[in-house]
């Protein structure tokens, strides 16, 4: 993990990652539950295997967007105050979950989510791959500490993700057609009236087959700089993946889409001069042989794709800086692109700021295209994974 990311976590976050994770997240002045995440999870022997090798319904794999397609199974485990440990995780049929009207997540937004993907390997290799799932697990641990919640260990998180993929294997798109998007949730499911951590928690994973995130597909997108509404503030929760970070960006995002833009870029709330990130992805700017991305200093989510792209760009000989990126740096860039689990590596064609439209280089001979190829080749098993980023699911 980079020095910048570790710094943004603060003392409690660094201590949390250094703990021998037996499942208990206890720090930061929060009175957390005395729970341990059990590793005795159910295997696929408990799941109906009759349709596991058939294709996922009548999906048109060539026109797969980023929408919810209900799959077969989800993974759930719970913890209640006073329990000796978490109840055994279960793979159950995908469906609605029951929550108290006074649950912590519904009343106070005590919840986190993650996003990662499973890719189908070639027919010669067989099986599936996950991309750096341990990073998602660690990020959830850091977020859980901030939100006064227990969190699974890295091993338990990855095991649960694997079980979810195998149970929904028929929904993994053919190689090159998309991926199985996996959504782990950690929520305060217990009933609570006063403002306090919930007395019960639920860890849940569901999955859905997806293609490209933006309607433009792999084509370059157009962004609008938002000057009045801000995604995060210093001292807030912008650096963790809490569910409370996302609903506030819906209004500016929908307003931008109504004007023909794909998404919104947010500025820092103090100076209103420095670019932070888009609604659901990180940002990179390229000028000459130098690449810059806004530093994750607490208001910007430390993206796993972002972290990987920094390393891949440096492997190609580029100087990559994690620093403040001003609006002047942005509009004067040669090339701009976004990164994220959902969006992958998406080139930016134009950015509109204060009514002026700025254009950037796109196409085959760009760094974003090179990095997109490098990244997806590793993710799909088309190139040797020299970095140990992928995890096999067989």
TrEMBL record:
Its EC number is 2.6.1.42. One of its GO terms (molecular function) is branched-chain-amino-acid transaminase activity. PROSITE patterns: AA_TRANSFER_CLASS_4. One of its GO terms (biological process) is amino acid biosynthetic process. Keywords: Amino-acid biosynthesis, Aminotransferase, Branched-chain amino acid biosynthesis, Pyridoxal phosphate, Transferase. It is an enzyme of class 2 (transferase). GO terms for cellular component: cytoplasm. Transmembrane segments: none annotated. The modification N6-(pyridoxal phosphate)lysine is found at residue 241. It catalyses: L-leucine + 2-oxoglutarate = 4-methyl-2-oxopentanoate + L-glutamate; L-valine + 2-oxoglutarate = 3-methyl-2-oxobutanoate + L-glutamate; L-isoleucine + 2-oxoglutarate = (S)-3-methyl-2-oxopentanoate + L-glutamate. InterPro entries: Aminotrans_IV, Aminotrans_IV_CS, Aminotransferase-like, B_amino_transII, BCAT-like_C, BCAT-like_N, BCAT_family. Pfam families: Aminotran_4. Its cofactor is pyridoxal 5'-phosphate. Gene3D superfamilies: 3.30.470.10, D-amino Acid Aminotransferase, subunit A, domain 2. Belongs to the class-IV pyridoxal-phosphate-dependent aminotransferase family. This is Branched-chain-amino-acid aminotransferase.
């Amino acid at each position: 993990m980079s020095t910048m990311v570790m710094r943004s976590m603060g003392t409690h976050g660094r201590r949390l990652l250094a703990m021998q994770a037996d499942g208990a997240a206890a720090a930061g002045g929060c009175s957390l539950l005395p729970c341990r995440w059990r590793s005795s999870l159910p295997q696929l022997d408990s799941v109906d295997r009759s349709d596991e090798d058939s294709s996922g319904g009548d999906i048109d794999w060539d026109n797969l967007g980023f929408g919810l397609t209900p799959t077969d199974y989800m993974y759930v485990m719970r913890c209640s105050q006073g329990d000796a440990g978490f109840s055994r995780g279960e793979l159950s049929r995908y469906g609605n979950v029951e929550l108290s009207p006074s649950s912590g997540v519904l009343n106070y937004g005590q919840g986190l989510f993650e996003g990662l993907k499973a890719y189908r390997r070639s027919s010669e290799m067989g099986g599936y791959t996950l991309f750096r799932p341990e990073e998602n697990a660690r990020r959830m641990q850091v977020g859980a500490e901030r939100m006064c919640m227990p969190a699974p260990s890295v091993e338990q998180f990855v095991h649960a993700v694997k079980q979810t993929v195998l149970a929904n294997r028929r929904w993994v798109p053919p190689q090159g057609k998309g991926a199985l998007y996996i959504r782990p949730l950690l929520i305060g499911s217990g009933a609570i009236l006063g403002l306090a951590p919930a007395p019960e928690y639920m860890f849940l994973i569901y999955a859905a087959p997806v293609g490209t995130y933006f309607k433009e597909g792999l084509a370059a997108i157009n962004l609008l700089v938002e000057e009045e509404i801000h995604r995060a503030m210093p001292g807030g929760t912008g650096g963790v993946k809490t569910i409370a970070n996302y609903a506030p960006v819906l209004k500016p995002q929908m307003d931008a889409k109504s004007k023909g833009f794909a998404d919104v870029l947010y500025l820092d709330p103090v100076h209103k001069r420095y670019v932070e990130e888009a609604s659901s992805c990180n940002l990179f700017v390229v000028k000459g042989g130098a690449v810059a991305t806004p530093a994750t200093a607490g208001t910007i989510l430390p993206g796993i794709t972002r972290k990987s792209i920094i390393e891949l760009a440096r492997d190609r000989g580029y100087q990559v800086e994690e620093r403040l990126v001003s609006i002047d740096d942005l509009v004067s860039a040669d090339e701009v692109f976004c990164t994220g689990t959902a969006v992958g590596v998406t080139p930016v064609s134009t950015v509109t700021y204060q009514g002026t439209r700025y254009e950037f280089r796109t196409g085959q001979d760009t760094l974003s295209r090179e990095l997109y190829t490098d990244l997806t080749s590793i993710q799909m098993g088309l190139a040797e994974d020299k970095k140990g980023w992928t995890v096999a699911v067989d």
